[in-house]
Structure formats: structure tokens, C-alpha cells
Write a structure and sequence with these properties.
Chain B: It is a multi-pass membrane protein. The complex is a heterodimer of chains A (276) and B (337). Chain A is 35% helix and 25% strand. Chain A has a single domain, classed as P-loop containing nucleotide triphosphate hydrolases (Rossmann fold). The longest helix of chain A has 17 residues. Chain A is globular and about 60 Å long. With 276 residues, chain A is α/β, with parallel strands linked by helices. Chain B has 2 domains: 75 residues, no CATH class; 245 residues, MetI-like fold, CATH 1.10.3720. In chain B, 74% of the residues lie in helices and 0% in strands. Classes of the chains: A alpha/beta (276), B mainly alpha (337). Chains A and B meet through helix 2, helix 4 and helix 7 of A and helix 10 and helix 11 of B. Bound molecules: adenosine-5'-triphosphate (ATP) and magnesium ion. Adenosine-5'-triphosphate binds next to strand 2 and helix 1 of chain A. The site of adenosine-5'-triphosphate has 12 residues of chain A, from strand 2 and helix 1.
Amino acid sequence: MLVDIQNLRVSFATRTGTFEAVRGVSFQIGTEKLGIVGESGSGKSLTARALMRLLPQNARITADRLSFDGVDILKADERAMRGLRGKRAGFILQDPKYSLNPVMTIGRQVAESWRQHKGGSRKEALEAAVDLLDQVRIRDPRRVCDLYPHEVSGGMGQRVMIAMMLAPDPALLIADEPTSALDATVQAEILRLMEDLVSKRGMGLILISHDLPLVSHFCDRVAVMYSGRVMEELSAGTLAQAKHPYTKGLLNCLPSLTHPKPRLPVLSRDAAWLQS
Amino acid sequence: MTKRLNALAGLLASVGLTLLGLVIITFLIGRVMPIDPVIAAVGDNAPQEVVERARLEMGLDQPILMQFFHYVVQLLHGDLGRSILTKNPVISDIARYFPATLELATAAVIVAALIGIPLGVWAAVKQGTWIDQAIRVVCLAGHSLPVFVLAMISLLVFYAALGIAPGPGRQDIVFQDMIPHVTGLLTVDSIIAGDWDAFWDALAHMVQPVCILAYFSMAYITRMTRAFMLDALRGEYVITARAKGLSSMSVIWIHAFPNVGVQLVTVLALTYAGLLEGAVVTETVFSWPGLGQYLTVSLMNADMNPVMGATLLVGLVYVGLNLLADAVYRQLDPRVR
Ligand SMILES: Nc1ncnc2c1ncn2[C@@H]1O[C@H](COP(=O)(O)OP(=O)(O)OP(=O)(O)O)[C@@H](O)[C@H]1O
Ligand SMILES: [Mg+2]
């Protein structure tokens, strides 16, 4: 068991009281691919960041169990967390335009990630970076090493991000909407690359997205989140048998080319879902 | 290559225009001020024909454009006119006074940056904690205390009462005129002369005015650094850096800090330029023969040639520092290249 989350809650202190953004999320994953879908603000990113303890300072985390790789995240000190971050789990953010450091060359950023956990000289790290960029199928990796993030396209930037996060050979990859900022054509390419590398290396994957069909295509299981909770967890093949009205709603909202509907239904929400 | 040439041409054009504007402004300062340059030169009680002759000699009967033309030609010959007060050519006055200011300002900006930048970064990292508050108070005092109060207290305590600091002035009387003038910076000149006693003496005389100027500049630099760093620390790439497992030191200094470089250079350049204008109050309290004193005394005596010369110099300092800052931006941020 790589990740074991029981009843995770994340809250923020506000002027009017506390705002609970994640309210009792539970799931477990091993070396498999879990998709998390849900509308904007449903708490997907916070859940993922809580796992690496990368939340803003004003966030409060509680959980019955929050363990990664056998380490209790709630109790681990900062040193132990640094040993987990990067080394045991990579974290890919949404938009490489902002998530890569704009004033550092790509080669240095990848090399830094490698060297942080594997040691070795600067030169060895740079060679490793070239090799990693090659693995994410970047042509002419030596030239790309000397470029700055603003000089490459979004798709290329996300490949760099993947290379950087795979550098220390982690056991888990967390990708928070890794393709939302990319063109549709590039999206599939990046997801396929990621899936391919994750499978080849026998890693676990948490893929966060808005796009239920896309996620179910790339993942073994899908967790559907709504308003800080997991509404339903399904294996990807059985989406059609979804029981929860919210999941069904999400599936119904998809426009279809083969069976076009005159109007798309409006996603219904029900306060009663949050009672249980 | 042509792109480079174009950029260079653009740069030269903008510098040229700025300089022209600067010269026009200093010229106007000389003409528009409600001071009659002739009376200022010959005195209030001079007979009418002396005044008339002086007016003709100074070319003040000619059309204003001709006057401007003559002014520019003079400038191109390095002639800033004569000071009525000191009887010296303004250019040689400035060569004497400016190095004193340069020495003070350079030392002050270095001290201010070395303390202010780390303090600002620290305050940003510890945002909202008592450390942040304490730094804020220290800076607030730097902003709001009048300079002369601090300067007087400093002189009273460290010179008069404790006797551990040297008194006003740039050097002790025994070293006066002992060091050959090379750069005009006493510390540098005494090193060149190999006279270490004179060097330590000059340095000791700088300590108090430098500390006071540095304190004010540091308050500004700290406040700005804190603001820039708060912004940088909110960046997504900071989360990436933390997700890579880097120590917080690396995250702060290797990832966030280089991203505020361009803004910081702007602040430092402005601070330095401000200091190079000469700090009148500090210079007065410490009897420091700098540009600020020269400019103020000349202005109060309606001695316009030094005023115009000093203004021109200050303008040139701003243009020069701007160019320098632009060059540094290119080094610090690949997106500006
Ligand atoms: N620092 C914060 N302070 C207060 N509230 C926050 C903070 N960060 C996030 N939230 C709130 O927590 C909720 C969940 O945020 P989260 O980022 O996890 O959503 P998400 O599911 O990832 O949405 P999206 O699909 O838009 O990325 C949102 O309502 C958001 O407003
Ligand atoms: Mg999100």
C-alpha cells in the first residue's frame, strides 16, 4: 500500500469561522492508476497537496490516517517530508508556464531534481538530465537543456516537468490537471507519455482532472469528488454502472457526436448527498 | 545581428534625447529663476554701466536660442562657467566635491543592500510572525526619524560623550593635503599612496555618516525586498521546488530570490542615484564637503553656474545608472534578453 488516506479533512480559518474545503476523503492506492475527477473547487488539488504536505500555511490538516509509503504524514518532521517529496513521489502541476522557474535553464532544473536525491557531480547530473529529457521524447535534448522555460511550448514544458519529477525514480506520480493548459492534440500525447512511463517503471499514479471520460481511459479506478468528498469510487471499466446521481449527471453532460441531444442537461446537485 | 544594431541605435537615440532634455532643463533653470545673473555676478551696488557691460559680456542681450547654443557649445568644451562664490571653475569644484559624495553614497548603498536584502527576504519568509513585525518597526523608524536628529544623537554619543568616533569632516587635520589627489576618494587615494594610517582615518570618518545614510536606504530596500519576495513566494514554481524535496533555504535563495533580481536592481539603482544627489542634511551635520552642500550653498547665494553644473551631473548620474541597470536586467532575466 503506497497511499492510505482515511477521513482526510483540510480547513482554512477565515474571518467568519472555519471553511472546510476537504471533508472526509478516504482512498487507498498501490502501484495502480487512480483518477480523481470533480468540478472546480471540489477539493482535488488540496487532497493531493495534503498528501505531500504542500498546503498553504493557513491550512489545517486532520485525518484518521494519512500515510504515504508507510510514513505518517501528519507526524513526520520537515526533514522526513523532504525525503519523501521528489524522491518517493513526484508532483506535476497544471501549467508549465508558471510551474517551471522562469530564470533557470531547463537543464539545471532537471539536473537539480536528480542531484538532490541521487548526489553526484554537477556534470553527472546534467548528463542524467539529458538522458531524462530523451526519455520523455524531447528531440535534441542537449540543446533544450540550455533553453529557458519561456523558450519552449506548453507541451514541451510539461514533458520537462515530467522528466524533472521522474528524475529521482519515485514510486508515485501525482499529476494535478497536467494537461488542462494544453491544446487538445497535445493533451493526449502527454497523457499517453505519462501513462507509458508510469507503467514501464511500475509506479502508482494519481491523475487529477475535470474530464471523466479522459481519466477513465487512462486510469484503473476513478474517484468522483464533489464539495470536498468522494461521492463514488469506481473501476474505470464500470463507469456505465455508476450509481451516484452526480456521476451519472457528469456522464450525461457529455455532448455526443453519434447521438446528439437537442439540449445538454443541467448538472443537478443535492444537499442531501453531503449528509451521509 | 541587425536586431542588435537596431537595439543599439534605439538605445543611443533615447540616451541622446534624454541628454538633450537634461541640458534644456539645466539651461532653463539658469534663465527662469527669478535671479538676475548679472546682478549676482557684479553685486547689488555696481554702477549702471558696469551692469550693462557685464550683460553684454555674458551674452544676455542675444536671442534665447543663441544663448542656448552658446551654452551647449560651452558644455561640449567641458566649460560649466565659474562659481561666483568659490571663484573656481565649476568643473573643478565638482571634481573636488563629488568624490566626497560618491565615497559616502557608495559605501552607504553597499551597507544598506547587504543588510536590507537579507532582512527583507527574512521578513517575507516569516510573514505575519513577530520577526516580520520587529523588522517592520526597525524600518518604520528608519523612514520616520528625521536625519538630523539621528545624526546629532550619533555625534553627541559616539564623538562627544564616548569619544570612540572621529569628529566631523572627511579626515583628521594631520592627514590634510598629505595624500596626493588621484580619484578624490580618500580611502582609495590613501591605498594608492600606501598610507594605511590615512586610510583607517578616512574610513573611521565615514562610519557615522555612512551608517545614518545606510539606515534610511536600508529601510526602503528591506520594505521593497519583502514585497517582491512575498510575490515570488506565491509562485507555482516555488511549489514545484518544494515538491522536488529541496530544503527551504534552496527554495528561497535558489528559486524565489533570483526571480526578484530585476525589481531589486531597479530599487538599488534608484537608491544609489538618490544618495549621489548628495544628502544635504547629513553632509551639513558631519561637515562633509559633498555635492549636496555645494549645491545648497550655491543655490542660497544665487550662484547659478554651480547649480546648473551640479544639476547636470545629477541628471547624468541618473542616466548612467539607468543604462547600467538595463545591462544588469539582461544578465538576471532571460526573458528581457
Ligand atoms: N489558501 C486557501 N485559503 C482558503 N480557501 C482555499 C485556499 N486554497 C483553496 N481554497 C478553497 O478550497 C476549495 C478547494 O480547492 P481546490 O484547489 O482543492 O479545488 P480543485 O478541486 O482543485 O479545483 P480546480 O479544479 O479548480 O483546480 C476551493 O473552494 C478553494 O476556494
Ligand atoms: Mg485544482
